[in-house]
Input
Amino acid sequence: MRTLNLGILAHVDAGKTTLSERLLYIAGAIDHVGSVDAGTTQTDSLELERERGITIRSAVASFLVGDLAVNLVDTPGHPDFIAEVERVLGVLDGAVLVVSAVEGVQPQTPLLFRALQRVRVPTLIFVNKIDRAGADPDAVVVAMRRRLSPGVVPFAPADEAGRTMLIEALAEHDETILDAFVTDPARLTSGRLRTALAQQTRGGRAFPVFVGSAGRGIGIDELLAGIDELLSGRKGDPDAAVSGRVFKIERTTSGERAAYVRLFSGTLRPRQRVRVGGGEEAKPTSVRVFAPAGAPRRDVLTAGEMAMVRGLGAVRVGDAIGEPPPGEGAVARFPRPTLEAVVFALEPEEQGSLRAALNQLAEQDPLIDVRQDDRQEIAVSLYGEVQKEVIQATLERDYGIAADFRETTTVCIERPARVGEAEEVIHAETKNNITGRSSPLSTNPFTATLALRIEPASPGSGVEFRAAVEQRLVPLYLFKTTDTFMTQMRAYVSEALTEGLAGWQVTDCIVTMTDCGYSSPATSAADYRRLTQLVLMTALHRAGTWVCEPLTELSLEVPASTAQGVVAALGRLGGRVTGQFSGNGIASIGAVMPAAHVRALQHQLPGLSMGEAVLETRIGGYQPVGDNPPARLRSSPSPLDRDAWLASLSRRG
Ligand SMILES: Nc1nc2c(ncn2[C@@H]2O[C@H](COP(=O)(O)OP(=O)(O)OP(=O)(O)O)[C@@H](O)[C@H]2O)c(=O)[nH]1
Ligand SMILES: [Mg+2]
Output
């Protein structure tokens, strides 16, 4: 049987969950249509989702259309939960992007559309809610052709204008259609057009539009037929090496981790040894393949399918199962969270349980970065206020911990200002040049030699690690191959850069290993790890760093008569206008401002714009903070304070 892994994506509230429910019902997988508003749908199964009527976690449900088994993945639309969508993107064969016929293209719509294109997922569009007053599907199609792609075309043109639109779009990429259109348009039967449309949809050049109402069950049969006709699963080789990806982790009631795996190639059975996340091997205790209702239960997962797998040990979201799937470069990355807040247990004696609970949540959600600073305060990174409320409610409900947050602050980064180098030589005692005596504190405390250079790289480039050392200096008795040594050193470098001179993550730099050395068999891997922290922080200290704050890009629409006041307010809040034009009494303003001041702007806007402002925001890079850059408390002593650092290492063992 063919399998299609199909994602449902959209801006918040467009109707993804309602559409998922309706597809399951019309395809015969469920007997009753549940509703989001009554909290009875298949895919919004968490208590919190049912109460709030929003999707928080992605969920899988299967149905059958013709001979095609579809694993539908309903995703959240709220920007605070964008991390869920990022993980799902890499495991899809196709997608339905839902757009409301009333609200039209909304801020998340182009973001998700572009992300789908980056990972080359063929995409259908469902214009939903045509039953509502104010629905204007034609206008929405025009807006999508302008803002998403000219390849957005009606699947079933209702009139001559629609047919011309379809032919013109297809002719862009298909000369035979163009020829026929020019010479003998009658030759272009609807069958011929449908074949071309299917081809171009799979090739990611056409995006057929379906119109209907998930709530009322209008247009769902056409969409189902379109899914069957226009999309297809990626075929993988069941006899090749096992290669899959974990896109979701759930804790079972007994506290065990269940991993949602999509397999790209190979076959996976219970008790079969398989490498998890490129590290240790594990033997799954159970494999439950997702299949449409009524199909026999299977525990053999083959290429192209999805399953819930238990017994994979310390598996995390995003881990490869077996060989890493190809095309890793194509993984869509959304920006990291730019906010964080200190969280504390209302009962101080529950602080330890709070930390354990948050660490568990972070396993399910790798973008929840939990850190504890020197004063034992716990901070979590965040996308926004709704995510904060959900974390608080989950702690209360699933862990019985009453917790609260202090004020939300922005998360800065550090970039090296110049080039800095440092070296520690094995067994070397350096002399204090004033007293002439050698001091035990200035002695390399580890049994290894290491020299590192850190230098600035272009914004957004992340951390690059290079090595310029001779093969004979590599301790092969510890690391087996030069490659393993490099992989380990890269990991030590990125660990050492989690907290820079001002306590923020160091990034956008190149770290080069210019020398290394060992003494067999005394040198251990731990020597390299510690020495990397010491040498890299010393090099960074010599380079100096710029603390950079996150920026937000804004698009604003306000009544033209109020534009001057709005621009002045942007200026007071550290914003910079990047573009402005007016027409029909509306001023459109593009601007960039520090993320820290966006909330202040949101408070002022209604007053400044007679309540008429429309604001869209996006994460927009980082800029250096000139005066008084903010610092963050470290989670452990800095290697630059050698005594305290060494003492803390021996305490931690
Ligand atoms: N009138 C009308 N309302 C609809 C339709 N589809 C969904 N809704 C309503 O729109 C609201 C949002 O629907 P959901 O299905 O939860 O939307 P969603 O996209 O899953 O939302 P998130 O997962 O939170 O992003 C609910 O109140 C639905 O009842 C429709 O076709 N017509
Ligand atoms: Mg939903």
